[in-house]
Amino acid sequence: MNSLGTYLFIAAALFVIGVFGLLQRRSLIGMLIAIELMLNGASLNFMAFNRFLGPDPVIGQVYTLFIMGFAAAETAIALSIIIALFRRIRSINIEQARELRG
Amino acid sequence: MNAAWIQDPNLLAAALSAGAPLAAFALIMLLTRPHPRLSAGISITAIAVSLAGALFLLARNGSMTAPIQVTGRWLVSGEIHIPFGFLLDPLSLLMLAIVATISFLVQVYSLGYMAGDPGFSRYYGCQSLFAWAMLTLSISPTMIQLYIFWELVGLASYLLIGFWYEKFSASEAGKKAFVMTRLGDIAFFLGLLIVLLQFGNLNILDMNGPEVAERLSPGLITLSAVLIFGGVVGKSAQFPLLTWLPDAMEGPTPVSALLHSATMVAAGVYMFARIFPFFSLSPEAMSLFLAIGTITMLLSSTMAMVTRDIKQVWAYSTISQLGFMVMGLAAGGYAAGVFHLTTHAGFKALLFLCSGVFIHHYETNDMFVIGRRGGRGLLIPMICMSLAAAALSGLPPLSGFFSKEAIMGVLADHPNPIWLAAGLLGAFLTAYYTFRLIFIILRPNAREAAHADGHSTHAGHHGAGLYGLMAAPLIVLAAVTLGLGFFETPLAAFLTRAATRAAGHHAWLLFVAVGLALAGTGLAWLEFGRRGAAQVGFVERVPALRALFAQRWYLDHLYRLLLDRVIYGLFSNLFTRNDRRVIDGAIDGLCKATVGGGRLLAFMQSGMLQYNLMVIFGVLAVVGLGFLFFG
Fold it and tell me: What is the pLDDT at residue B505?
């Protein structure tokens, strides 16, 4: 159980679930959660490779911490955009936000 | 370089006389326009400086042996050098003196004529510009410089002819003068380009030198000579571009005097004389010029026989005398042509200035009206005008007699007698129409009262001071007209320097020419001057002929027709279509294509974010798989 393949499989599953969620959810909040899933999948990859292949155990963890920081910041910005959009169209359904249609 | 300018009195004088009017022009236009008296003072001072410089140069270099040329580099492009500077030789010195003298006298005269005009300062500014352009043209060492100042002369005359621009006819006349002379100038410039490209040099001394014949083929010389002569045709109002000059009478009379004697139209003949040796290289071109001069002279003489406008008569006579000069030059009489240019400048300026006094006093151009209102009462102008008229007709012992005889002598030496016959006919006609005018004013006819127009009151009660200002230049010019003829021999010697072939002297010709002039005068007396004369010319008895002459041989109608049919009907039309269809169409098409392309591409921007994302992921996945399996 304690092998690299297991972790990679879980990470890939997380990522694909995130992609599916991003493409499938019509709610902006749902899309945001899906993005978090994708980011976590990527983080898990970093950790796993670091654990099994990397000589220095610190680098992967530092990357992961950075990704978490970025994710927090990104979430804050995304939420503020979503709130602004909600004020404008009174909805957080992505299909309502079509003003950029050509 | 700087030291040389100040040390050499020749250069200093030349620079001063050419530069002073320019400074005056700048001063007047920039600073003193609100002060008419000051402007006039500046302008007259400047032209007086020019006159002093010109006379000084003439006196100092009276026996010069080689031309003085000073040039500074102005433009260098590859092999082509275009210098600016001065060329002082007998011809340019003589021209400088003529221009400065006439300009000075005309400006003094204008003090009286233009008094009280709202554009007084502008008038003097333009006069200074005119003087500067013409003086610098006279001493140009290269054809390029000459051409530049040639155009400036055209500009100045446009400004002055259209001086009373509120009057529609005046602005039209200015435009006509500008455009018609421009036609000739295009040919002139093309001719210069041919010489420049083939010969590599436009210095007047080089063009007059022997190398031209070695470097250019005879055909090219003829072509470029004819093209350059196009400039003369335009500027000197030769056939077929002669109709602008009579219209130019719309300007103030002193301007006409200046234009007709020493500056604008004389520039053409001066240019002919300037590169006379170059023109002489092509006998074919010279024959063409001779024909053009003859046609011009005869055509304009006939036009002068029927007009009632006093200035128009002198305008036509100017054209005819210019044609006469061109004939003289084209027949090989360099000194004769230039001499006639000199004497003509004197008496033609006198004629116009005298007419100006009449026009100013009676406020009409109609010679019959002037005569009936007692034109002969103005003694000084009347006497001076009669003198100048006699000089124009070539009666001895006035200056015109000598110069006309000189040209007749040259024509008599020409193998083809038809030119001499034409010249003599011209002399007869000249005497006839000149004295027609004089007799009409001298002997007013009561029957003419039927033609009276609205001006019945004497509007002109002008101060004696103004009259004096206008009369003084008349007297000076009359003295010149009287005396200049006797300087023929020294002038010819000065001009040609080396001993050239003396023009054949034909005693019989002298009698024939004077006899014809007298016959013309007599005919005029019979028809207009005699007590109880009908004052109807022999031409006017034939209505068709009269209409033909009065309409200027329908030349203007022809031009109008050409303009309407060819320029407007054909070229303008085609160009308009080109504009509308081709250019506008192309631009519109470009716009429509852009907009349509945008519309088409806009379908891809569906506004559905998740489809876009799906495409992105799909592409990324494919690329990633590609790297994984084939990378």
Answer: 59
